[in-house]
Amino acid sequence: MFERQIVIVGGGISGLSAAYHLLKIAERKSIRLKVTLVERESWWGGKILTVTEGGFTVEGGPDNFVTVKPWALELCSELGLTERLLPTNPKARRVFILWRGKLHLLPHGFLTFSPDLKGLLETSLLSWQSKLRVALGVILPKPNWDEDVSVGKFLRYYLGTEMTERVIAPLMAGVYGGDIEQLSARMTLPTLWQIAKLHRNIAWASLVRTIRRKLSGQIQNQQTQSFFMTLKGGLSELVETLLANLKEANLLQKRSVVALMPDGETGKVAIRLDDGGEFLADVVILSTPAWAAADLLRPIDGTLADELYTIPHNHAITVSLAFERSQVQHPLNGSGFLVAPDEQDENLLLACTWTSSKYPPRAPQGKVLLRAFVNEWVDLSDDELVEEIVNALRPLLGIIGEPQKAWVFRWERAMPQYTVGHHRRIARISERMRHWRRIFLAGNYLTGIGIPDCIRAGKEAAEKALRVLG
C-alpha cells in the first residue's frame, strides 16, 4: 500500500489535534500516512502560551477550558494527563461584576446562564423592578423573529435591560471579547435560543429544565467536577504532550504556506512554502484563522475567500501582574471580576482574573498573581499599559506600590466574532467547501471558540480527511 500525505497548515490546538487524531486513526486502521504540520510562528499551540518565571505560571492566552464540552477532557485522558488536571479552587469560585465603581457578587447560576432564584433575589446588581421583570417575562408574547437576532435584543426582550447589561454583557465580553449588540444569540446562546423557541419565559423554562436534570441525577454528577479546569504546568503542557505524540509527523516550524493549488493531473493539492519547498498533498487541512485561510483560498475560490473574510476578529491584550500578598489588601475571595459595559468607558479594564486565588499553584506562597484583560487595542508601550492597568486596579483591590513583575501579551485579530447571521455564513462556507473535496477547514471561527471546540474541530477534520482517502 502506497503512502498518503496530509498537510496541516497551522500549529495551534486545532492543527495539533488534527495531526494527533490522523496518526492515531491511521495506526489503528493500518493506513500508511505521512502527516506534515506547518507553523509560521516560533512556538506551537497558537494562542496557548505559558510562561514560567520566578515561580509564577503565567498564561498569555486562555488559562483554562470548560468541562461541559467533553473534547478537552477526553484528549487529556487519552494523553495520560488526567492526573495533571487542576480544577478551580473550590474556595474561589465566586465571580464579581464591577458596576458603579464597586464589586458586586455574581450569583453562581448566572455564570453558567442557569436560573438562580435565590441569587436573583439577593444580588445587588439588579433593582427590584428588574428582578420582577425577569420573573414576569411569562406575560410576554413570543416574538416573531427571523432566523437570528443579537444577544442584546434577545435577552432584553426576555430578561430586561438591567439583567442584560449588568450581568450578561460582561459575561459575553469575557467569553467572546465582543459586543452583545453584534453577537448572534443563536450561535453564542444555543441552549437559551432553543428554549425560547418552545417557551415564552426562558427564566422559568430554564428553571424547570434544571429541576428535571437534578431529578435525573445529571447535575449531581456534574457537581463533582469543576466547571473550569487547567493543567498543573499550564495549558502549554497539553501542547507539549501532543507534540511528544507526533514523533511520526513532519513538523515544520517558522515556515509559511504561501500558495496552494489543486493539481488537475493527480487530483492532489500542490503546496508551496515561503522557503521554496513544495509538497503534493492528498489532503490539506487549514487550521489557521479565517482571514489566513481566505488568503490561501482566494486564488482558487474568490467567493469562499470573501465569505471567510467577512468573519470579524477582535484584538486581545492580557496583562499579568505579580505582587507580594501584603501589597494587595482585598481578600481576593473569588476567581476575579468582569466589568459592566458602562464602566469600561472609565478605564481600560474588561476583566481581571485573580489567578493565584483561582489556581493557587500559579504563584509562590505569599505572592499574588493577577491577570487583567484590556477592553480595546491600545498603542501604549508595555510599561505605559502596565501603569494604566495598575492604576485602574489600585482602588478596587487596595494595591500598594508597584508590581514586582509584569507580563504583557498582545494578540492581533485573535477573537472571531459570531455576529448575527453567523450560522448562515457557515452554511455558505460549507456549501463552497463541497467543491474542494481534498481541502478541509478547522478553527475557532466555525462553530466554537474555546479549547474543547478547537480540539473537536481538528478531530472532525482528521476523520473527514481519512474518509476521502478511503
Task: Give me the CATH architecture of the largest domain, please.
Answer: 3-Layer(bba) Sandwich
Q: What count of helical segments does DSSP give?
A: 19
Distance from N terminus to C terminus (CA atoms, Å) equals 12 Å
Largest sheet: 7 strands, mixed
Number of domains: 3
Q: Overall pLDDT, averaged?
A: 90
CATH class of the largest domain: Alpha Beta
Percentage of residues in strands: 15-25%
Radius of gyration computed on alpha carbons: 23 Å
Q: Order of strands side by side in the largest beta sheet?
A: 8-7-16-17-18-15-19
Shape field = globular
Helix content range: 25-40%
Produce a short descriptive summary:
It contains 19 helices and 20 strands. With 470 residues, the protein is of the alpha/beta class.
Index terms:
5-stranded parallel sheet; protoporphyrinogen ix oxidase, domain 3; 470 residues; alpha/beta; Polyamine Oxidase, Chain A, domain 2; 7-stranded mixed sheet; 3 domains
Write a structural description.
It is a single chain. With 470 residues, the chain is of the alpha/beta class. The two termini are 12 Å apart. The chain has a seven-stranded mixed sheet, with helices on both faces. The protein has a five-stranded parallel sheet with strand order 10-2-1-14-20, with helices on one face. Strands 5-9-6 form a three-stranded antiparallel sheet. It is built from 19 helices and 20 strands. The protein folds into three domains: 170 residues, FAD/NAD(P)-binding domain, CATH 3.50.50; 114 residues, protoporphyrinogen ix oxidase, domain 3 (Orthogonal Bundle); 104 residues, Protoporphyrinogen oxidase, mitochondrial, domain 2 (Polyamine Oxidase, Chain A, domain 2, Alpha-Beta Complex), CATH 3.90.660.
